[in-house]
Amino acid sequence: NAGVTQTPKFQVLKTGQSMTLQCAQDMNHEYMSWYRQDPGMGLRLIHYSVGAGITDQGEVPNGYNVSRSTTEDFPLRLLSAAPSQTSVYFCASSLDRLNSPLHFGNGTRLTVT
Amino acid sequence: QQPVQSPQAVILREGEDAVINCSSSKALYSVHWYRQKHGEAPVFLMILLKGGEQKGHDKISASFNEKKQQSSLYLTASQLSYSGTYFCGTEHFGNEKLTFGTGTRLTIIP
Questions:
Q1: Strand pairing partners for A94?
Q2: Closest to A98 (Cβ–Cβ): which among B42, B96, B103?
Q3: A13-36, pLDDT tens digit by residue?
Q4: Tens of pLDDT along B8-47?
Q5: Distance from CA of B26 to the nearest CA of A (A)
Q6: Which whole-number Å values give the CA distances from B30 to B22, B56, B95, in the listed order?
């Protein structure tokens, strides 16, 4: 099993560009989430999903969109990139909502210039 | 609401013990603990559900005090491999979001 796979690992965008960060898991996990990590601020929740077709906002959702059309995939879309979105992004999944461990992907390091 | 972790950083010699605290201003349903090494993804350590239970494996254990809305992570006889940043994540009743603290950086020196 691959676990949680994120692509790309690194990305550089210009201000105003859009892109999609991909996240896929092969563990049949219902719960998936996106976090961003900035120095000194820990992991902040962007969006999460408790199952296919269901998504909800986290602490810092502005500037990001998500969808969950299948159990396996949970892409994160940046609509119009801003320098404030420079960060490391982690996708995570768990089997039974938050009663089981979060499995994290290896992260995507995004730089917006 | 983001939980508060303390201390922010700690340096220990190999073999010494450490305690990391995590507290919330709201009633907790569960507390997660993760460790992250530099340049890597966070890795799960343990989950504690409401009930004041204590969990542990090897020389790392944790407690959850539901009344005080806090959890503590105990690392005994620390090893070099324990170095990293420790995060607690908290979930509140009726809320399926896991909110992380800002982390505690643990450095173990020989």
A1: A31
A2: B96
A3: 999 999 999 999 999 999 999 999
A4: 999 999 999 999 999 999 888 899 999 999 999 999 999 9
A5: 16
A6: 12, 15, 11
